[in-house]
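Sync notes, pocket subgroup
Present: LS, DG
LS reminded everyone that the earlier model was apo-only. Rerun requested with coenzyme A included. Inputs:
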Amino acid sequence: MNEKGDPRRENGLLLPASTELPPWRKYLRRLRDRARNWHARIFFARHGIHRAPEIIAQMPLLEIMRGSSLSFGERSKVWSSNVQTVFYANHRSAIVVGHHVSINQGVLFIADNGSTITIGDHTRIGAQSQLVTTGYHQVAPGEPIKTAPIIVGRNVLIGRRANIMPGVTIGMHSVVAACSVVTKDVPPRSFVAGNPAVVKRTFECPDDWIRDSEFYTVAHATVLELPLPTAEIALQPAVPDEEFSHV
Ligand SMILES: CC(C)(COP(=O)(O)OP(=O)(O)OC[C@H]1O[C@@H](n2cnc3c(N)ncnc32)[C@H](O)[C@@H]1OP(=O)(O)O)[C@@H](O)C(=O)NCCC(=O)NCCS
């Protein structure tokens, strides 16, 4: 509440008087979530995947070729929207996602040429990151094409648009900064950044620590209920064209 006693306005943002939803809306949301979960189960089962993650927004693109596999642990989440998340596994490859993993929109997983991508429990992968296990093309004549597994440990945070290159192992609890290109192994409990990513610092934490996150601590419903500040802007009278004539 601000000093004028207006509960709907704080720091220039419009806020709902109460973040508590009426019971009928909670009920409708539960129905919607249940329907979405059933849709996800059927969608994944049709691709031979018997434990489906929770889906936010839309179904991801699955290209799991014969002889390859994709699997999820319990209570993992995949967000896919206008930038679709893609899981591609071919030529006897596998993508193994642990429990409570959160995968943001537009993430690209490619496991090819008999390789695997393994994601540890409680790991979060930022939007539009890419994990690809093969280079697909030679660098110079006579050289082999590099293909190697990617292993991401438990409770890792991969920042948005990060690139994880073939053969990389990321140790538990570590953090990859946004847009970094990880070409070498990352030790546990370290923060790496840049292209190529280098260790910026290391930190201590207990083995069973799970990273806090806005996504989990702010109720999704509350975020959705916030009226957009742009609604206010739209209400302001349009500026007459003449005012811009000198520009
Ligand atoms: C991981 C992160 C939170 C770390 O923030 P931080 O602890 O405050 O780090 P700092 O800002 O103190 O930076 C430490 C060093 O890393 C560098 N750094 C930080 N982020 C970087 C990035 N994305 N790329 C390159 N270097 C980076 C800083 O320049 C600094 O370098 P220096 O010590 O040589 O000066 C932040 O870098 C980040 O990437 N946030 C995005 C998280 C994200 O994408 N989440 C998922 C959303 S979908």
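DG: The domain at 53-205 is CATH 2.160.10.10 (UDP N-Acetylglucosamine Acyltransferase; domain 1).
LS: Residues 216-227, 231-236 have pLDDT under 50 and may be disordered.
Action: DG to write up.
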